[in-house]
Design brief:
This protein is an alpha+beta fold and about 80 residues long. Helix content is about 20%, strand content about 25%. It contains 2 helices and 6 strands, in the order ββββαββα. The chain has a two-stranded antiparallel sheet. Strands 3-4 form a two-stranded antiparallel sheet. A two-stranded antiparallel sheet has the order 5-6. The model has no long low-confidence stretch (mean pLDDT about 90). The structure holds zinc ion (2 copies). The site of one zinc ion (ZN) has 8 residues, from loops.
Length: about 80
């Protein structure tokens, strides 16, 4: 049993997410996990739950946002 670090729910099906920096976080739902650890688009601020697009050390939810932010090297797959 573990307690979700976002909402505090004590849930027997909680799971642990280990990030690339080695830190571990416990959540009761993907919604809480996304809220806590998903990166945010540098342009629109939405949580990135897909692969996202990285350019110039910044991350975007889609190539369109990258374009709006002045990054022209990214393209969405068509
Ligand atoms: Zn939660
Ligand atoms: Zn975006």
């Amino acid at each position: 049993m573990a307690r979700c670090e976002v909402c505090g729910n004590d849930y027997d099906k909680a799971f642990t997410v280990r990030l690339s920096d080695g830190s571990e976080h416990v959540f009761d739902s993907f919604e809480c996990a996304i809220h806590a650890v998903a990166p945010e688009c540098d342009h629109c601020g939405c949580h990135i739950i897909g692969h996202g697009s990285e350019a110039d050390g910044r991350i975007f939810c889609c190539a369109n946002c990258a374009k709006h932010a002045g990054v022209s090297t990214l393209k969405d797959r068509e």
